[in-house]
Amino acid sequence: MRHVTVLGATGSVGRRTLELVAQFPDRFRVAGLAARGSNLPLLAEQIRAHRPEAVALLDRAAAEQLARELPAPRPDLLAGPEGLVALAAEVKADIVLSALVGGAGLLPTMAAIRAGRTVALANKETLVMAGALMTAAARERGVALLPVDSEHSAIFQCLAGAKPSEVRRVLLTASGGPFATWSRDALERVTVAEALRHPTWRMGAKITIDSATLMNKGLEVIEAHWLFGMPFDRVDTVVHPQSIVHSMVEFIDGSMLAQLGMPDMGIPILYALNYPDRLPCPAPALDLVRVGSLTFHAQDPERFPCLALARRAGVAG
Fold this sequence. Notes:
Blueprint: E1 2-7, H1 12-23, E2 28-35, H2 40-50, E3 54-57, H3 60-69, E4 76-79, H4 80-90, E5 95-98, H5 106-114, E6 118-121, H6 124-141, E7 145-147, H7 150-158, E8 167-174, H8 184-187, H9 192-195, H10 205-213, H11 215-228, E9 235-239, E10 245-251, E11 256-260, H12 266-273, H13 288-291, H14 306-316
Parallel strand pairs: 1-2, 1-5, 2-3, 3-4, 5-6, 6-7, 8-9
Antiparallel strand pairs: 8-10, 10-11
C-alpha cells in the first residue's frame, strides 16, 4: 500500500490523481489533501470519499468554514502557508504529489523533500523559482523528483538506463496551442475564451493560457534544465500538433528515443504514483493507424516570443 498526499487536490491534476487512486484501492491510500480553498464543496466531497488523515487549506477563512461544515469525525484541519508545510512534512506519506499552481507550491514541496518524501512534481513553477535549491535538497536527502508533466515524464522514461555522456539533447514537444496557425494581426484580437480552448489537452485555466502563448513551454525548458541537469543549449523544442509524441531524447550516435501515447494526463500521473512499476491506466489506447500521421515544425519566435524570453531568463539565472 502506497500512501499519497495530494497538494492541489481540487485542481485538474489533483482531481485526476484522486480518480486514479480510487481505481486502485489495494495499491493507494490518501494520507493528506491540500488546496487553496476556492472549491470547498469539491474538497468536502473528496474528504468524504478518501478519508485523509489531515487536510490543509491556504485560505484561512476557507479552513474555518470547512471546519464548521464538515461532520464528525473529520480529519485534522490545517490552515495558511504553515499548514501546507506541516501537511507535506508531517503527515506520513510515501509520495507527495505537488500540483498547487504557482508559488503556493514552493514551500510545501520543499518541506516534503526535506522530510524525505518522494515527490511527484506537477508544479513546474517551483523548479522555475528555486530549481537550484530544490535539486540540491533532493540530492542531500536522497529524494526522487518524479516528473508529472507529460513532456518531462517522457524524457524521464527515455533517459532510463542512459549515460549522461551519451545524451546529445532533449527535445520537448509543444502542441502549438489554439493559435498555432494564426497571423500576428489576428493574435492582437484574441479573446480569453479563445485562449482557453486548447486543441488537445484539458487543463486548468493558468496552464491553458500559458500554453496558448507558449510561455508554458518556456517554463518547461527551465524545468527540464533542473530535472535532468541539462544545459539550456541542449534543451530544444518542436511544435507537434497531434500531441502524440510527448518528448524525445537524441543520443550522440544519432539515434532518438521518443515516448508516445494519447494526450491523457492520467498516464504520467499513474506512472509517477506507482514508479518504477506500471499499472493499467484507464486511458484510451493509442491507435497509430487511426492517427495516420505525425507532423513536426519549428515555432515562430515573432508570433510567440514568450518561449525565447523564458529561455533567456533561465540562462540568466
